[in-house]
Amino acid sequence: xxxxxxxxxxxxxxxxxxxxxxxxxxxxxxxxxxxxxxxxxxxxxxxxxxxxxxxxxxxxxxxxxxxxxxxxxxxxxxxxxxxxxxxxxxxxxxxxxxxxxxxxxxxxxxxxxxxxxxxxxxxxxxxxxxxxxxxxxxxxxxxxxxxxxxxxxxxxxxxxxxxxxxxxxxxxxxxxxxxxxxxxxxxxxxxxxxxxxxxxxxxxxxxxxxxxxxxxxxxxxxxxxxxxxxxxxxxxxxxxxxxxxxxxxxxxxxxxxxxxxxxxxxxxxxxxxxxxxxxxxxxxxxxxxxxxxxxxxxxxxxxxxxx
Length: 307
Ligand SMILES: [Ca+2]
Ligand SMILES: [Ca+2]
Description:
Bound molecules: calcium ion
Strand content: 25-35%
Oligomer: single chain
Structural class: mainly beta
Radius of gyration: 18 Å
Number of domains: 1
Largest sheet: 8 strands, antiparallel
Shape: globular
Helix content: under 10%
CATH class: Mainly Beta
């Protein structure tokens, strides 16, 4: 397997501190066409989702689907990857031909297991126990699908954290970017909010200045939250929705915005092409956590929060 992640990085970046703060208080915007309707309807909360739902194969088809841009509802089973983990083995690793548990470079106390303590859909989800310290990381990875989706990629997952994010840098989503030296494009937390990090140069989105951090949002604690992202390779655009709401601080577009994507634009020719998706926990100087992940989907079109 070609995980080429380098060693731990305990340092924090504050490159944006040199930038003047302006216009940085836009916390969020209305949902875009990427997942307009239906996103708010996904209100099944912690712990249970109705026992008899779904479970055809690993491809869930249990719901009425999301209204992606007002088009026809999405049938999860039609997506290139969609896993509700209802057919996974309780107590075992996520697998089903889709997932491989990986610990790049070194292995410590991190653990990944199919669990029934929390579930967004049905009864099962994947529990990740990640401790502080780089080598205590662990991920479950799909290496087949995301690289074949084309130039624009949408990913959606429901996450449940048992604690708030701390100040240190953590990662819960990493994707190998073949167009960036094989380094990972990573989503995680820092300064207590969601953020993206580009492993190749440690750029962050938003900039981790106080003004920049204020443009992102804190994760919910002990509640399910829907995260959807869009990566457009040719334009180098990145967008992120939390519970269906576009987060201003988690957007890279064609214009460098102070405190938001100004650090990201230090690589103006960034044109990502990711080839795997790894979900789990990695804490460089940050805290450990227990998280649950459910209803992971990938597509070349908007997915939305349902199911
Ligand atoms: Ca489930
Ligand atoms: Ca911008």
